[in-house]
Amino acid sequence: MSDTELRAEFTAFDQSTEQDWELIASQLPVTQSMAAANIVEQLRMLERDHGGFPVSRLEHSLQTASRAENDGRDEEYVLCALLHDIGDTLAPYNHPSIAAGIVKPFVSEANHWMVEHHGIFQGYYFWHHLGMDRNTRDRYLDSPYYERTEEFCAKYDQTAFDPDYVSAPLSHYEPLIAACFDPASG
To answer: Which of 22, 41, 91, 178 has its CA 20 to 30 A from that of 49?
Structure first.
């Protein structure tokens, strides 16, 4: 079939038919199969920006993942460590939400919450230098994931800005990304 044969013909949802939506639903696995490659490409784009930090945003992500992996964390946790800042160059003021949206269907509630809230928890280490409340994270003290997120930032995220640290390369994590986001790869 040609590309045009695989398209619905409506111009507004209220004109669509059940057959249109069956066609569209059948294409979701095709679109999902592109996700892993798109995630890798977005991570590569982080190499272009350092945002004033001692290392590029990609190197920060690789250091965070490498530190978690070297500490014996499971693959899902390592994946979250790798992707936690993937939204830095897309939504600098709201990057945790970008990463959380990407991982949500594929990770545990605990890891999703950790990714979604890491920005506030990371603030503990520097917000006081900007006149902000470093203890803002404490509004989540009643969360069952508070300690997990606090530990993630303390052990892996806030320490991952070392130009001398030897991280695993992005290629090391590509099979992990593929296994999670491309069901056909496994």
So the answer is: 178
